[in-house]
Amino acid sequence: MSFLLLAVAEWSLFLGVEYAIRSVPAKVLLARIEYVGIMSSPVFLLIFTLELTRQRKGIRRGYLIPLWIIPAITVGLALTNQHHHLLWTDFTPNPASNGNLLIYSRGAWFWVVVIYVYLVLCASTALLIRGALRFRHLYRRQFVALLVSMAPPWAANAVYLVGPEPIQGLDLAPLGFALSGLLLVWSFRRLQLINLLPVARDIVIEEMREGVIVLDGWNRILDVNPAAQELLGLDAESTVGRDAETVLGEEVGAGARLLESADGEAEVFVDGVGYVEWRISSLGEGDDAISGRLVILRDVTERRAAQDELRRLNETLERQVEARTARIRAEKERNDAVLRSVGDAILMTDGGSQIRYVNTAFSTLTGFGRDEVIGRSVTDLLERMSSDERAGRPPVDSIGENVWQGVMRAQRKDGLVFDAAMTFAPVRDSDGRLEGHVCTIRDVTQRERLVRARDQFIENVSHQFRTPVASLQLYAHLMEQEALSERVTGYLTTMREEINWLNVLIEDVMEMTALDTGKSVSDWQPTPLPRLLDCIEERFADRFEAADLDLEIPAIPDDLPLVRCDEARLAQALSEIVENALIFTPAGGHVTLDVETVVEDGHKEAIISISDTGPGIPLTEQDRVFDRFFRGSVVASGQVPGTGLGLSVAEAIVEAHGGRIAVESDPGEGSTFAVRLPAS
């Protein structure tokens, strides 16, 4: 647009000077210079029209160069016309103008220029007509105004070409352009030409899902896209040009308060539509000059409903969380009440063996206050509570995921010594990972005193029995050296068997007493299971051969884990079971020792099975076979000797290793004893 106006100004300026001077050579020179503006004005007009109608976007810059070929040739021919006379062949002054006007005799190239200029003007006019038909409402009036503004230059040029004789040589184009300028000024001010151009409206606005309303600086509606018409029930033909506050405030019911500010957004409930989001943005050219506003409308009824539903769900969730929290708090309070009320002292640690909780009974029993122990290492606390190095302190660092039970000679804060029965058990999270331990402590001083008194009594009695039993054995041996009658020899044999049985009974009682103290299982070492089985096989091989029995040990797996045990004591427990199998299995039978590994609840265990083909155990006796001094019906009948303590000793040794023992038996088909031990 600027270049178009500059070209017209150059043309008008030199044309005015030409009419003002009387020198013919000077007039001809100015006429040559005027061709710069004459030939560039149509080209700039076409480019401006392409820009206005947004047709230039698809035209590359290089494609516009041919438009300048004829103008460039024409300017060159104008400057050198005296050599070829292609533009004009001659010129004569117009007598009616007193010599101010020159009448040029047109050359051949002049008509080429006329055709070119009119083609360019026709192309510009066609683009404007197409724009007027394509765009609606205010844009159509803008194009009509531009078409009207082009009429004066057309008419002036036609007068110049075919005007009557009195005005031949008079070019009224500057006057036509002046009238066009007045029309354009009116368009700039009244219709805001150039300020609001149809920027790809058909593509951007017409196809938008959101409603779009364009307002001018006076809040008049300039445009309404189809989405806004459908959303608000508006008619574009009757809405455009009307006051926005009237249309949007009264007819739609949206409220005109949003239009009072330059920018803003809000959600407004529209009758028959629902919730509509309004977003108003200013349109300007800088320097705080606002030429209009853009209103974007979006139906947010579904989103609002989803938000309301989400809010209700959040409220429901919050109530559920509060209720759950209240239940957890109540459960915690109940647990705390239980922990506070129990008589046993309770201590809890985290994964790093740091004390996190103690109950009231703990402080009462040990004399240590809660603030003195929370956050401390349980190892340090147990060292402080140990009365001496032989106190039996639990191996906290090596307990891991196992359960430890034992009695510790503990010392209160005030120095009082007592016997404390302790149990350390692992605490796991929901994924089974170890997250700490819980320890219970009970004062068993009185019980331990009774146990020690019992053990001392049994030990004294056993020792008292040993002396006369030894004497009886000696005298029985001496009597066997004498020549006695057959009847007396029989009595002596019976007496010697009873003395041996009494001696075995005394040894078994002493063994049980030692196991009850927990001190007889002490030599803990990682032990391979195959070595244990080899020891049992070597110990009983000759006896099995003499009894015409087979001792079978199947192939042992190579991946058996080690077992942390007192090897001698564990071999003793297995020997007690094998001894029973040897005694009860008839000749020709067989005893099988087998071993396997299982994993239960994430813990690996080794299972040693001892099976025989003996008479089996009656169902009524299977629950009592591990009771002390229990002798089954076969033993009680006198067919098989025994004290009833062998399996009790085996069970005590296995339990001292953190294991367990069980029996399965079908009467008449034999028995199977399974010893389960934790793998190290």
Radius of gyration: 59 Å
Mind describing the biggest β-sheet? 5 strands, antiparallel
Q: What is the strand tally?
A: 19
Tell me the span between the first and last alpha carbons.
94 Å
Average pLDDT, all residues: 77
Strand order across the biggest sheet?
A: 4-3-7-6-5
Shape by Cα distribution = rod-shaped
Number of domains: 5
Tags for this entry?
single chain, 680 residues, alpha+beta, Beta-Lactamase, five-stranded antiparallel sheet, 19 strands, 50% helix
Note down, in words, how this protein is organized.
With 680 residues, the chain is an alpha+beta fold. It folds into five domains: 2-190, no CATH class; 201-299, Beta-Lactamase (2-Layer Sandwich), CATH 3.30.450.20; 342-442, PAS domain (Beta-Lactamase); 449-517, Helix Hairpins; 524-678, Heat Shock Protein 90 (2-Layer Sandwich), CATH 3.30.565.10. It has 22 helices and 19 strands. A five-stranded antiparallel sheet has the order 4-3-7-6-5. Strands 9-8-12-11-10 form a five-stranded antiparallel sheet, sandwiched between helices. Strands 14-16-17-19-18 form a five-stranded mixed sheet. Helix 18 packs parallel to helix 22 (646-656). It is rod-shaped, with a radius of gyration of 59 Å.
